[in-house]
């Protein structure tokens, strides 16, 4: 759902708009009358509808189409094209729920501004819907490890207060889940939880999105702060908020009130503020990208959400939780996790944290065949991984073996590498690895490592043992 449907009875006009939008990277569909328009909408609702209000040779006029769309697909924004001098009709269309209107003959820049804003509105609506859909899932906090329980203890302490909380931690650790947990456990649970995705709102629209706006045509449109009244507003990735908006938010926090864009009166809201950051805010302040006063206001109770690497013992329970959740929500197979798959997961590198774990489980369930337990071989091999700073990560197969066998695998790999490094020279290898030459020989024999001559160079490989000839 990312295309734009253009409905106009004048072929030149619909093709002109389509060309302009095509140049801007949008995909378009075209319809020349109401029947074609309704067929397109019913087969797949577009992300945006551009609708001529006067349609010749059509059963329905533009207003009828608008009403039908607003009834059946209320989230599709509709931009009306009206003839010059038909402003009253355009205003009437806006009262019926049209997003905006453009007058013929229109100017390209004006057209594009309206379209961009309408598309962004559509995107934000979809995102919000998505969040609402994930609500139940994201309010659930799964984990048993000590670091997870310590964090949960901190969250429990703040649920009953109104204190502003700053959740920090890398991407995908569950900061939003933690914010929703606070909301769900607090006495604001029945009031809204509204997320402000600071990174995805266009800076020049931030004020309108947060504070809402007032126009003669459409009256009052509430912003996110007003929508969150009585509940919780969650500033996700607060460090991505433009400096200008930071000052405005600061003023709201101090005054407890604000003005809508284009409005004159003051709006009072009762909000609990929770914020999140994956960046080091001290460094952002130092670099002049974040306002110190705002930081002090938001950071009353700082809570660090541990990375998945800090709570590897939670990986099997999280995996089992996601398998069950994906079975319920998408009907994916309800598979168990074999012990070696579980062990391998606990040693993998997780830069994307819990979100990456969830995505991996989803991928394995979609691609895998059968309903048997998930095996280690279905998981990405260690070569796909990245190295981890804390060095706790082993190569894939090692993690799944008992110590004796793992040691053998390691010794074999290690000695093969060293012998080849020293061009097959056992004495130099023995010297480097810190073993007697004869002991190294015995070791190689027991591991099945042989050294052979290949194109004049000595190489080691695993097979039957051969006499060393130096
Ligand atoms: N403890 C948990 N129990 C269950 N699911 C979790 C847990 N932590 C995270 N998740 C899941 O991991 C995914 C990412 O979580 P969330 O969006 O809260 O992370 P985040 O830290 O806010 O990420 P970002 O900073 O990238 O927005 C979500 O699908 C969420 O449901």
TrEMBL record:
PTM-bearing positions, type 4-aspartylphosphate: 52
Domain Response regulatory: 3-119
Name used for this protein in its record: Sigma-54-dependent Fis family transcriptional regulator
Secretion signal span: none
Superkingdom of the organism of origin: Bacteria
Start and end residues of each Sigma-54 factor interaction domain: 141-366
Key words of the record: ATP-binding, Nucleotide-binding, Phosphoprotein, Transcription, Transcription regulation, Two-component regulatory system
SUPFAM superfamilies: CheY-like (SSF52172), Homeodomain-like (SSF46689), P-loop containing nucleoside triphosphate hydrolases (SSF52540)
Pfam family, one: Response_reg
Gene3D superfamilies on file: 1.10.8.60, 3.40.50.2300, Homeodomain-like, P-loop containing nucleotide triphosphate hydrolases
């Amino acid at each position: 759902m990312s295309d734009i449907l253009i409905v106009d009875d004048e072929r030149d006009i619909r093709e002109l708009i389509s060309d302009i939008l095509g140049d801007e990277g949008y995909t378009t569909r075209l319809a020349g009358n109401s029947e074609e328009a309704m067929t397109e909408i019913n087969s797949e609702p577009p992300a945006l509808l551009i609708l001529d209000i006067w349609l010749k040779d059509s059963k329905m006029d533009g207003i009828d189409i608008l009403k039908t769309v607003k009834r059946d697909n209320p989230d599709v924004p509709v931009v009306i094209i009206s003839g010059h001098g038909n402003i009253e009709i355009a205003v009437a269309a806006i009262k019926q729920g049209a997003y905006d209107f453009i007058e013929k003959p229109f100017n390209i820049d004006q057209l594009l501004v309206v379209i961009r804003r309408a598309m962004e509105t559509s995107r934000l609506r979809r995102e919000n819907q998505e969040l609402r859909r994930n609500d139940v899932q994201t309010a659930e906090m799964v984990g048993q490890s000590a670091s997870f329980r310590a964090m949960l203890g901190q969250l429990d302490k703040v649920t009953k207060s109104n204190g502003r909380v700053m959740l920090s931690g890398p991407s995908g650790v569950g900061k939003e889940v933690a914010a929703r947990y606070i909301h769900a456990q607090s006495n604001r649970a029945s009031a809204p939880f509204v997320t402000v995705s600071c990174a995805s709102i266009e800076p020049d629209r931030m004020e309108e999105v947060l504070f809402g706006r007032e126009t003669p045509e459409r009256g009052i449109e509430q912003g996110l702060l007003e929508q969150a009244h009585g509940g919780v507003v969650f500033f996700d990735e607060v460090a991505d908020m433009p400096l200008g908006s930071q000052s405005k938010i600061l003023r709201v926090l101090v005054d407890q009130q604000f003005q809508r864009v284009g409005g004159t009166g003051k709006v009072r809201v009762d909000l609990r503020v929770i914020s999140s950051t994956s960046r080091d805010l001290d460094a952002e302040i130092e670099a002049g990208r974040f306002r110190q006063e705002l930081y002090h206001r938001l950071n009353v109770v700082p809570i660090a959400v541990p990375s998945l690497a800090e709570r590897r013992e939670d990986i099997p329970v999280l995996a089992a939780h996601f398998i069950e959740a994906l079975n319920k929500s998408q009907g994916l197979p309800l598979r168990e996790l074999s012990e070696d798959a579980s062990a391998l997961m606990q040693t993998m590198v997780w830069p994307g944290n819990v979100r990456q774990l969830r995505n991996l489980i989803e991928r394995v369930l979609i691609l895998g065949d059968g309903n048997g337990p998930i095996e280690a071989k279905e998981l990405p091999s260690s070569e796909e991984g990245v190295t981890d700073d804390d060095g706790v990560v082993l190569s894939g197969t090692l993690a799944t073996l008992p110590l004796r066998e793992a040691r053998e695998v390691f010794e074999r790999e290690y000695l093969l590498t060293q012998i080849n490094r020293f061009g097959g020279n056992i004495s130099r290898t023995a010297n480097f690895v810190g073993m007697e030459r004869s002991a190294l020989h015995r070791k190689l024999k027991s591991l099945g490592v042989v050294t052979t001559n290949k194109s004049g160079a000595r190489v080691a490989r695993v097979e039957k043992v051969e006499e060393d000839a130096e």
